[in-house]
Structure formats: structure tokens, C-alpha cells
Amino acid sequence: MNIPAFTGGNAPPRIASPPAIALHQVSHFFGSTPVLNHVNLTVPKGTILALLGPSGCGKSTLLKMLAGLLHPASGQISFDGEIVASGTFSLPPERRNLGMAFQDYALWPHMSVRQNVAFPLQMRGVRGALLQEKVMAALDRVGLADFASRRPSELSGGQQQRVALARAIVAEPRILLFDEPLSNLDRDLRESLCEEMATLLRQLGTTAVYVTHDRHEARALAHKIAHMDQGAIARIDLNDASVVSPFVA
């Protein structure tokens, strides 16, 4: 029996998927000093958001909240509609399905490049041929497939940061977090690696939050830029510099 296609006007409403990241009234204190002040923010899936501002404005603290390295004093943080932190609860970092890269690279010096990149997968129980396949694919993406057997001490600063990037993406996390990963590099190398990262992040299509104090870096990498000041988001700009409503990325 042929069933005609539905053409009526009472189709069920389309349910929008939750944002990749949602913060509601998130606050944090160091002692009695407020560091984050009732931050509200949503980041749609696939968006690269830069947190831009001077030292002490709260951007790294906010990133550490997303990573699970700090807990909010109040408010709520959700990933894909799942609450990962509140004033009374915090999901451990290893259960948040994140990839992270920091300015000091955080590579284990006694491990080879291959072993450093393999670590997040091993923590998830990946072994054998699949492990090696995924590690080499990640290293190939950052142009370091031929350096898999080297130690971090045998690499330049830019190469070490590429290893850190490969380690961040190898497990295909739902969110990538970057805390000023290029700040230790000289200007020319920073600019070239910034372009490479921008291309890679857009190819991956992964939601990413990128902390920086460099306006040019933010513009090269991000779809949108959240300007932070005194623990709050002052405004969010599109990458074409047109201002959109505060608190919604």
C-alpha cells in the first residue's frame, strides 16, 4: 500500500539541538575577590570562539571552568545540553570529552612524539592497530608524521606546539580548549602557525574556545570574539567586526 507523503500544515515543531556550550550566571571567586561575575554565554556547535582581553580579565579562569580544572561558585555550565558543572557539582575533566592545548605545551619529555599523542586514546582504552592509525593520522594533520619517534627535546617550539595540537585532536573531542598556545613563539612563527591552526580547526568543524590577548590572533582564528573585562563579557563581535548581542556567541 502506498502511503502519501504528509503535506498538511500541522507538522510537529522542529526541536533545535542544544548549543555545544552554555553558561548561565557563572561566578567564581579567589578568596573574596570576584574573578567571574554572573557570566552568561552560549556557543553553537562548530563555532570557534576567541576569549579576548588583558591579563586578569577572567578569560583563563573561564577556560579552566570549561575544562573542569576550576569549579564555579554559582551558576551552571552545560555541554550539548548536559550539565557538567554547577555550584554543587562538577564533572571531572576526563569525563567531559575535551581536547586541550596550553602555552607551555605540557608534553612528557620521557615519551616520544607518538607516545605523547597516543596518551588520550590509551586513557579511553584504544589499543593496537587502531591506536597507531589514529595517532599517525593526527600527526599527519599537523605535518609531523616523520617526527613520531623523536622526543620533545629534539623539536623546535613550533613543532612541540604542533604535537600538543595533535594530542588535543586525536581522540576527536566534542570541544577543543586553547589557553594562549602560541604566546611562547616568536612573531613570525606565531603568525604562520596561527594560519595553520585556523585552517585545521575549520576542517575539523569542532567547537573550540581559544583564549588570547592578541587581537590579530583572535581575528585570524575565530568565528566570533568575546571581549572580556573585569570578569564579565563586555560584548561579542563577529569576525567581520560587526557587533552582535552581548552574551550570545
TrEMBL record:
Q: Which domain of life is it from?
A: Bacteria
Q: Which SMART domains match?
A: AAA (SM00382)
Which InterPro entries does the entry link to? AAA+_ATPase, ABC_SmlMolc_Importer, ABC_transporter-like_ATP-bd, ABC_transporter-like_CS, ABC_transpr_FbpC, P-loop_NTPase
> Does the record carry Nucleotide-binding as a key word?
yes
**One Pfam family of this protein, by short name?**
ABC_tran
Question: Which one of the record's GO molecular function terms can you name?
Answer: ATP binding
Q: Which UniProt keywords apply?
A: ATP-binding, Cell membrane, Ion transport, Iron, Iron transport, Membrane, Nucleotide-binding, Transport
Q: Does the keyword Cell membrane apply?
A: yes
Report the Gene3D superfamilies cross-referenced here: P-loop containing nucleotide triphosphate hydrolases
**For the ABC transporter domain, which residue ranges apply?**
21-248
- What is the protein name stated in its UniProt record? ATP-binding cassette domain-containing protein
User: To which species is this protein native?
Assistant: Rahnella inusitata
